[in-house]
Amino acid sequence: MDGPKRPPVGQIENLIEKGTTMMTEERLEKVERELRAAKRRSRWLLVALGLGLGAMALVWASAASVPKAEAQGAADGRTVRANMFILEDENGKPRAALAALKDGPVLSLFDENGKPRAGLAVAKDGPRLGLLDENGKARAVLFALKDGPVLNLFDENGKTRVGLDVNADGPVLNLLDAAGKAIWRAP
Hints:
Layout: H1 9-65, E1 70-71, E2 80-81, E3 84-88, E4 94-101, E5 104-110, E6 116-123, E7 126-132, E8 138-145, E9 148-154, E10 160-167, E11 170-176, E12 182-186
Antiparallel strand pairs: 1-2, 3-4, 4-5, 5-6, 6-7, 7-8, 8-9, 9-10, 10-11, 11-12
C-alpha cells in the first residue's frame, strides 16, 4: 500500500519555515498598521493641543489688549468713560450697545436672540429712531430733520406703506400699496 505520499523531510522544513515567515510577516504588518494608527492619533492630539494653546494665547492677548474702562472725573467712582459699551445678559448675548461713532452716538437694543430690534442715533442731519422686526427689517423709522419730522412705516417686505412728513408747507400723509403706488394722499 502506497498511501498518501509524504513530502521529503527538506520540504517539510521549507513549509514550516514559509508558514513561520508568513505568520511573522502578517504579525509584522499588523504591528506596522497599529503603529501608523498610533502615529495618526498622536498627530491629531498634537494638533488639538496646539490649537488649544493657540486659542488660550489669543484669548489672553485679546483680553490684555482691550482697554479697561476706568472711573474718571468723579471722586466717588461713578463716572465711566469709554467709546463703546456692550450690555450682555446672563448668557453672554448682547442686549444693548452704546457707541460713539464718527457720525454720532448710537444706541442699539437687541432681543433675546441677539438680533437688533431698536436703534436710536444722532447724526449730523438730526436724530433718528428705528424699530425692526424679528427678521431685522425696519418696520418704523422716525427722523427729526432740519426741515421737520418724518415718520415712515414699512410692511414685512421692507416696502414703505405709510409716510408722514411735516415741513414748512405743512403736514403730508401718504398711504402706499405693496408696489409703492400712492393709494391716498393728504393734502
